Amino acid sequence: MNGTFLGMPAFPEAAREAVRDERLRGNLRHATHTIRAKRAAAVAEVSDWAELREAGRRIKDHTLRHLDRHLLRLEESVTAAGGTVHWAADAAEANRIVTALVRATGESEVVKVKSMATQEIGLNEALEAAGIRAYETDLAELIVQLGDDRPSHILVPAIHRNRAEIRDVFRSEMAAWGRPAPEDLTDSPAALAEAARLHLREKFLRAKVGISGANFMVAETGTLVVVESEGNGRMCLTLPETLISVVGIEKTVPTWRDLEVFLQTLPRSSTAERMNPYTSLWTGTADGDGPRAFHLVLLDNGRTDTLADEVGRQALRCIRCSACLNVCPVYERAGGHAYGSVYPGPIGAILSPQLRGTASGIDASLPFASSLCGACYEVCPVAIDIPEVLVHLRERVVQGGPATREGTKVVLRPAKGHAAERAAMRAARWAFGRPGVLRTGQRLAARTRRLHPRTLPGPGRAWTATRELPPVPAEPFRDWWERTDGGRNEGDAPQDPEETK
Amino acid sequence: MRVALFLTCVNDTLYPDTGRAVVRLLTRLGVDVDFPVGQTCCGQAHYNTGYRHEAEPLARRFAEVFGGYEAVVTPSGSCGAMVRELYPRMGERARAEGRGGALAAALAPVVPRTYELTEFLVDVLGVTDVGASYPHTVTYHPTCHGLRGLGLGDRPLRLLRAVKGLDLRELPGAEECCGFGGTFALKNPDVSAAMGADKVRSAESTGAEVLCAADNSCLMHLGGTMARLRTGMRPVHIAEILASTEEDPLS
């Protein structure tokens, strides 16, 4: 395992391993089912949940429709409050900006509070290449970093690890990153938390530069918001002299009042809490309190292109609650790593192929990583119709079509490897356009039914490897209907040529 | 009342018993059933795999074949959801892409008159006791498109509870997908099979003899999984249970 997602295999291959990993499936099943049940109870407590969901959807849609205006307003407010705004079109530009900002401080280490945007752009690797060490301080991110691992869940990046594995990682790796874990560390949650606390406390007190993400950015006041459970984020946001926040442009909300909706829906959807333990808000700089310098890096990295797509843009409403992951039966079996991105699960399956395009094998396979059961849409607190976007992106993969890449309208060609399927779909449509052809096919299947193999070659093997095929009946319904005049005149059953031999 | 049976291509070809059961059941309830032979397939496999343009002619065909009926009844939550939920969307998209409103206009009258079987029984005919008898233990799997697409709610359960002799067992994790998902079963076979096996295990844990659903495509996947896992349970479509009577029991 290494820390990046580059060169991932397509989803079905990546998932195959995970499905067979009994321990991983056990960890995931236990964790997702627990949080799923808690979330349902927390949501059921709120009598106006449907209205809150609709309000969240509307606020996000409205903001996205006028995002240019709100971003300029945000820049103005942040600047007025003493911060500096930087615009980054893509990952490389964002990494360049952050690296230069850290270098300007003369420091060679930074503390980080959980930020998916920085994971998305590979910031830690970029900083490392520039001789700067980044310390993750969110407990789960710390586990991932120490284990040279990848996150596999939006909210619980180390969900794939159990307590014993975490103890082993702490014992073998912590020393190389700072204060070592106690020799006699057990796998009790309190002992693990204490080891992490002592390890991290040293970092917080020493760090001169903090890097954060944000859950929301309020345009009217220039305020950034981080919602977290551990308080480590608050340490990163208040102790360093320089704070650099890297945030996707879609995290903007127009007004302070808009937070009201999301601060209700986010904790209940994610951790099943009525209110999250730490909500930190920061606005520019203030004398004698908090960082002396504040930089906001506004990250595009495919978001404007996504915004140009009428069906797909709703993915940008996402508030990263992870409810869709916890309820997804595919995520539960495949695990988060199979999605090849910091955004796993149903939302990742529609977000990654839009942010990164569908050119790679993994990105072209993600829209198919769903049975379209609709559970993700049902739980989404901002009503993203994930199945609708999945089907839309499937169309893009198999048939090509219009899309926007780097601000330019392009017509994408179909992804490779779908020619046979396309031919089969066309043939099926042709047959279904002619009831006579359909009937001939049905009769042929019925007459040869004794000869049908129990295992199929080619793509059909995917079925028969684990499931029996249904037997083909002696007579299709439409023949019965005609023979018996709709059941009014039941005559002799049809002759089965194989049986009469 | 004269209704059209939209049997679906899967049922027509592989599960004619379900079609015969629907005819028997509705006729018993005094409904005049027709089977327009021009019907073929709703196009769901095409649409959901990304071939929306290949699905459009099938939607047009559906509108032509079923346009003249008071009601269209289908024993498939999945194909029912395709018609009710996705056909209107296809019409809107065709219009938005500059191909005119003909598809939307053709679909407009027939879409709201299309009902999944249990919905038709409970909402249109207003019955929950259809006079059925089925002395077996049964557990019911609410398939995703029936549950979330059409919002069938407890209609199928109300119908099953009224069946004489039927012992209904609650299915743990009932609302979880069985893993069929159309072409998903072929494109992601490992995940699909794992989901199917888990669903079969929870059905088995109820001690029921029969796993019942309102969709033969999910039952095909689950029945194939049961047979491979040698569980001894059997998959039965709800129409066949509701058609079964003391005089004419389901064999």
UniProtKB/TrEMBL annotation, chain A:
Residues 315-384 form the 4Fe-4S ferredoxin-type domain. GO terms for biological process: lactate metabolic process. Keywords: 4Fe-4S, Electron transport, Iron, Iron-sulfur, Metal-binding, Repeat, Transport. Coiled coil: none annotated. It comes from the Bacteria. Residues 476-491 have a biased composition (Basic and acidic residues). Residues 73-298 form the LUD domain. GO terms for molecular function: 4 iron, 4 sulfur cluster binding; metal ion binding. Residues 393-483 form the Lactate utilization protein B C-terminal domain. Residues 451-501 are annotated as: Disordered. SUPFAM superfamilies: 4Fe-4S ferredoxins, NagB/RpiA/CoA transferase-like. The keyword Nucleus does not apply. InterPro entries: 4Fe4S_Fe-S-bd (IPR017896), 4Fe4S_Fe_S_CS (IPR017900), FTHF_cligase-like_sf (IPR024185), Helical_ferredxn (IPR009051), LUD_dom (IPR003741), LutB/LldF (IPR004452), LutB_C (IPR024569), NagB/RpiA_transferase-like (IPR037171). This is (4Fe-4S) protein. It comes from Streptomyces showdoensis.
Automatic annotation (TrEMBL), chain B:
One of its GO terms (molecular function) is oxidoreductase activity. Residues 3-83, 138-222 form the Cysteine-rich domain. It comes from the Bacteria. Pfam families: CCG. GO terms for cellular component: cytosol. Transmembrane segments: none annotated. PANTHER family: LACTATE UTILIZATION PROTEIN A, UNCHARACTERIZED PROTEIN YKGE. This is Fe-S osidoreductase.
